[in-house]
Amino acid sequence: MSKYQFIFVCVFAWLISLPTLAQDDVSPERKQAIDSLALEKVKDLGKYISIIGNKDTPFSEANRVIERAMELFADGAQMGVSSLNREEVKYYGVRKYFERLMALNYDRVTIRWFNIQYISDLEKQPDGRYVGVITIYQRFQGESDDGLKYMDTTKKDITIYVERKQTQIGGRVIGFWDVLLGDIRVTETTS
Description:
CATH topology: Nuclear Transport Factor 2, Chain: A
Order of helices and strands: HHHEEHEEEE
Mean pLDDT: 87
CATH architecture: Roll
């Protein structure tokens, strides 16, 4: 390889890596796309929770939806559970939360999420990840054939993690931003 070919290859390799290096900071356009992806994942989770909790959902379908929902979360994430009947909020691992949701002792369960919105902007962390918080309101209704009824509205804060990941496509390493959901904290429960 001649000196000029070597310089060309080095410059070409540098130019290819430049977009990847430049994407370590989130541009306003990319941030908007990340915000949309985060909100979409939260809305998906709301749909999954509704399906898992619905007593008309077949067991096999609920388990399939649980696996899909688990893909949304960072390792070790926990879900807060509250009730009007007790003051303390209990926290469960995500899978345990879904299993408990499937096993609720009601004949009919309706869970609806609404008023989904960012309450904190994405902030860069020392490890390079970005963290933000999305707030949702969850309306829970449970009814039993014997007349037992329970209803509450819970305000929840969902931690959002945005991190840089890489994948290989056609032998080329491609960098991208991914969004994972973290802990879901109960901030308020009302009737």
